[in-house]
Each structure stands twice: as C-alpha cells, then as structure tokens.
Amino acid sequence: MRTKGDRRGAGTADAVVVIGCGGGAGASVLVTGLAGAADRRGLRVVALDLDAYAGGLDVVFGIERADGVRWAQVAGSVGALDGAALYDALPAAGPAVLSYGREGTAAPAQVVAEAVTALAACCDLLLIDAPRDIDPQDLPADAVPVVVAHGSVRGTAAAGVAVARLRSAGRDPVVVLRDASDRLAEELSDAVEVQVVAQVTSERRVRSDLARGERPGAQGDLAKVCDELLERLIAQRSEAAA
Known about the structure:
Elements: E1 2-3, E2 14-21, H1 27-40, E3 45-49, H2 57-61, H3 71-76, E4 80-81, H4 83-89, E5 96-98, H5 109-120, E6 125-130, E7 144-150, H6 153-168, E8 174-178, H7 182-192, E9 196-200, H8 204-211, H9 220-241
Parallel strand pairs: 2-6, 2-7, 3-5, 3-6, 7-8, 8-9
Antiparallel strand pairs: 1-4
Helix pairs in contact: 1-9, 4-5, 6-7
Organism: Allobranchiibius huperziae
InterPro entries: P-loop_NTPase
Protein name: Mrp family chromosome partitioning ATPase
C-alpha cells in the first residue's frame, strides 16, 4: 500500500461527503446506493468509512467477510501511500470500500487525509460516510456535503443545525430527507434556504438486502433516486470547480 517514494499530488476525483443527522437517517444506505449508481456508470469509486464507532461500512455493503485492507492496516503501514496499490487492496463487490472494522479505534487524522489524497489520484469518485460531529475543516476542500435526515420534526431540526454548522465553515451543503412529506421538505428548504435535492422512502427491499448481508440499492426506488442524485451532485461539483 505504501511506497518509499514521494506522495502523489492531489487527484481530480469528485468527492461527496454524506453526513447523517440523528439515528436512522439512512446515511450509510445512501452511500451504498450512490456507490452502486457510480459503479453502473463505469466510474472507479471508493466508499470511505470515517466513523470508527459505527460498526463498519463493509457490513452495510455486505462484504465484511471479504479479504482486503481496512483502516487498521492503512494506519499501521509505513511510508507514503500508493493510491493505486491501496485501491487494488480494498475489498470490493463492485464499488471498493475502505472501512473500519470492529476495533473502535479511529485512524489518525493525518492518515485519513493521506488516504483521501492518494485515492483521489487514482479514482473517479470518493464517497465519504462521515459522522455527524466531524469537523468540516477535516473534509476535502472541494467535496459536496450531503446532509441526510429523517423526515420528522426532530430530524429536520437536526438537518438545520448541520447545515448551519457546515455553512459557518464555508461549505455549501444540500439535504436528502428520508420518509418526509413534501410539506416538511418545503418548510425545511424555506427555513434554512437549503436545497432538498432528493427524498428517499423506506423500502422493504432495502431491509431485506441488509438482513441477507447484501448491498442495498442495486435495484428498486433507492437505485433510481441515487442514479438521479449522483448525476446532480457531479454536475454541482463541476459547476463549483468551473
């Protein structure tokens, strides 16, 4: 994974950071859906798990038993990270995943930053599953932040707090709501002047996929929503970079 040579320069991969607000928001499931959408487009995509205490993003992807490198191995390696070698070493069933295991130990911030930079140099899209308390300054500078919240009064209130926090750090977040009424989505959009870019509904298919240890979002409504959402997010990223 690491070489003795100089680090590669920053790459050009698009980056999307997904931040869940409150329990049951569905952020990790949205990451799997977006990863599947990217894979269907033929993109080289990596999903990065930045929450050391969430049980492992590889579980949601259904590859927790697959061979491959996790954060513990990345943090324990020596030298400059080789992004291509790291990409090839990650577990994958379509999209590649850099996940925490069940150790409950977070990788040092410098290691995370190095891994993000190295992988950005050799893939098309980084999907970052971030904890709600992440410091916005620790996110890639050009990443699109996506706040995910449950469509309840408390959920939308939490989304408003997250949006304000990200904006105070100079970010321009968008929101995805799960199981929200159109009225509630409009109220949130008007109250904090934020784009609600997608609404996701709970699906029996998704629950069944998770129960069987399969990656959700390969088919059904979630797949359709994520196909459309990914196209919109990539377009937003391109406009911001222009």
